[in-house]
Amino acid sequence: MKNIKTTIIFLLVFGAGFVTASFITHEYFKNLYEQKRISPFFEEVTSGKNKSIYIISPKNGAEVRNPVRVIFGLKNMGVAPAGKLKKNTGHHHLLVNIDKLPDLKLPLPSNENLIHFGLGQTETEVELKKGINTLQLILGDYMHKPHQPPLISKKIKINVK
After folding, report:
1. At 60, which CATH number?
2. What's the number of CA atoms in the CB half-sphere (13 Å) around residue 156?
3. Is there a contact between 60 and 156 (Cβ–Cβ < 8 Å)?
4. Owning domain of residue 24
5. Do residue 79 and residue 123 come from a single domain?
6. Which of 12, 31, 56, 158: disulfide with 73, CB 3.0–4.6 Å?
7. Cβ(71)–Cβ(122) under 8 Å?
8. Does one domain contain both 11 and 61?
């Protein structure tokens, strides 16, 4: 009798998880479809050559101490939180010590080396390893996907003492 109860509970929990995952997956693909449907509008708005993204501080080659304050710069576009569909805007993603850029046709992953600023932040403080570190910015759209063409800053090197 105890095994039957355990099996039934297991099946109920598994079933609930499966149904929940199905709804979440459906919503994800629905959002992707919406993004594809309206993407020509955004490609036209965000593809200008005068737009630029850059790191204001620290400067390339700077010697700094932890925590390192990083200030983001953006010209000719606005900053908006992730999830907010707003014309000519995006939000920052900071790449720390990344040699190879991620796939720029997909939403950017989030980890300790690729930090999302989905609330629309324009600066941060980060703890970096001692020695030489690299920093770079990518602007993402409302779904963390890089604009097309991608807006990517120059990579800078700093020395953490």
Report:
1. 2.60.40.10
2. 22
3. yes
4. 1-46
5. yes
6. 56
7. yes
8. no
Helix or strand or coil: residue 4? Answer: helix
The model's pTM: 0.69
Which residue in the block uniquely carries the two structure tokens 């737009």? 51
Mind listing the pLDDT tens digit for each residue in 68-79?
999 999 999 999
Q: How far is CA 47 from the centre of its chain?
A: 19
Phi, psi values for residue 102, rounded to 5°: -70, 170
User: How many angstroms separate the CA atoms of 131 and 160, rounded?
Assistant: 5
If asked whether residues 66 and 145 sit together in one domain, one would say: yes
Do 116 and 79 meet the contact criterion of CB atoms below 8 Å apart?
A: no
3-state secondary structure 36-64: HHHHHHHHHHHCCCCCEEEEEECCCCCEE
Closest CA to 77 of 91, 64, 62, 60: 91
Q: Is 70 exposed, middle or buried (0-12, 13-18, 19+ CB in 10 A)?
A: buried
